[in-house]
Amino acid sequence: MKESLFSRSTLALAAGLALTLVAGPGFAQEVIAPAAPAAAPAAEAAPALSAGDTAWMLTSTVIVLMMAIPGLALFYAGMTRKKNVLNTVAMVFAAVCVLSVTWMIIGYSIAFGDGGALNAYMGGLDKLFLGHLTKDAMSGTIPESLFIVFQMTFFAITPALIVGSIVERMKFSSLLIFLVLWSLIVYAPVCHWVWGGGFLSEDGVLDFAGGTVVHINSGVAGLVAALVLGRRKGYGTENLAPHNLVLTLIGASLLWVGWFGFNAGSAAAANDSASMAALVTQIAAAAGGLTWMVAEWIFHRKPTVLGVTSGAIAGLVGITPAAGFVDPMGGLFIGIGAGFAAFFFSTTVKKAMGYDESLDVFGVHGIGGIVGAVLTGVFAVEAIGGTAGLLEGNVAQVWIQIYGILATIIWCALATFVILIVLKYTIGLRVPEPVEVEGLDVNLHGETVH
Amino acid sequence: MKLITAVIKPFKLEEVRSSLTDIGLQGMTVTEVKGYGRQKGHTEVYRGAEYAVSFLPKIKIEVVVADALVDKAVESIVKAAKTGQIGDGKIFVSSIEHTLRIRTGESNDAAL
């Protein structure tokens, strides 16, 4: 049963990819005027350091770190069963540690280095170990060291998001190796495409704070990982209910607060663009939470804690690519759209498909990210972000957005699948069944929560 | 001597305890238990995943009383624990052969 489901899903995935591969180049031809990337890495001249910008970016950096630990760790911890809570938080925390070091060693160079002939697709190895960095090096109006650590927090949280898809059954060692490989083969190149001067920014794809780079990427990887790994034992028959949704609510709240650093921080300055991004972020988060809650009230009869928190996260995901490009009305509609799409996918579609993507990383981040990226092309306002969207008559921007989404999905799905298959047949991905039954906390970590 | 075992709704514990104290009983043993009868369980929905919760939390009270007090004790438990809703619980009465107070060595009724 498990095998046949897996092969069917794989087949569907492969068919979808084949379709999008055919469609991809068609969209590319419709590309129009390129937009400025949200965060330009290298300084052209030698601009003066802005104390205001630097202060805001230092603040943004630490609150984005707070999104991952403890925000994301708690958000996920509350949704797992009591026997696997410590494993869940350990995976997120250890991911932040190992990915921060990876970024220092090679990640930054691949994402923001000079790729020479391959620069459209990835950076080079000129910034290994950050050996190039000097104290007075600048990135725009802030020190390059600050730009590196700000981007480091993005590099740390994105792979950590995937943890939600594989909790309660994956080997700790395999997860850490997977995250390092994934961050270098998937995240760093896609980050280069969008923010490092690669082909997506050249082609005019709008992604202010990481709708494609962070959310579609982690969501698609989560779905592929859930399919390759298989379902948790007892999925669909046993009670796998969340053990403490107060933890989830605290985690979601920390994510929400941290998201101001994520979105408004992506302006890389303390200015009007950052302020507008902050405003629409709050609007979309609230609208997303309300939408999921009301939808669930109507369709499942009760408004739940898990629902309203999930909806707020979906709204935040949706506004991420749009933050610096849309006005408050755009923020409202993006929050509603992302909230409802994520609700529909995480409840109805997932149930019908029968795969166990444990904590809905694809349902919330993948779907919310896709909806947000498309709607960015619809609601973009020229007076705010410099690019007009569909509503201002620029129909082509929607196609450019879809092109960016497809490029990300194809590369991410293929590369994630290959990495996981290699690991599956070398070191193995899943814990032995008795360990899964008794719990990962005591077996993998020798600790229990209480 | 009789053992009265009563399974009641958790929020009724305090009322049952004070009504038994009122008729002169001096102690009881209480356990948090789970179970189901006609009330069955309920379902919980998490992001569309529905889980049946078959066992509901209940309180089990165990109290040993002298023969003369049994009817009065049962009556006051019923009075205090009854809501009229399904799931109010059950009372079982059984015989006890011997009782001994550890500290003093008193036995049977003197030990209650």
Description of the structure:
- The complex is a heterodimer of chains A (450) and B (112).
- Chain A has 450 residues and is mainly α.
- Chain A has one domain (2-445): Ammonium transporter AmtB like domains (Ammonium transporter fold).
- Chain A contains 16 helices and 2 strands.
- Chain A has helices at 2-28, 51-77, 85-112, 144-166, 172-195, 199-202, 211-229, 245-263, 272-300, 305-319, 328-353, 361-379, 382-385, 396-424, 433-438, 440-445, and strands at 138-139, 142-143.
- Chain A has a two-stranded antiparallel sheet.
- In chain A, strand 1 (138-139) and strand 2 form a beta hairpin.
- Mean pLDDT of chain A is 91; it is low at 1-40.
- Chain B is of the alpha+beta class and 112 residues long.
- Chain B has 2 helices and 6 strands; from the N terminus they run βαββββαβ.
- Chain B has a 4-stranded antiparallel β-sheet with strand order 2-5-1-6, covered by helices on one side. A two-stranded antiparallel ribbon of chain B has the order 3-4.
- The radius of gyration of chain B is 17 Å and the shape is elongated.
- The mean pLDDT of chain B is 93.
- At the A-B interface, helix 10 and helix 11 of A face strand 3 and strand 4 of B.
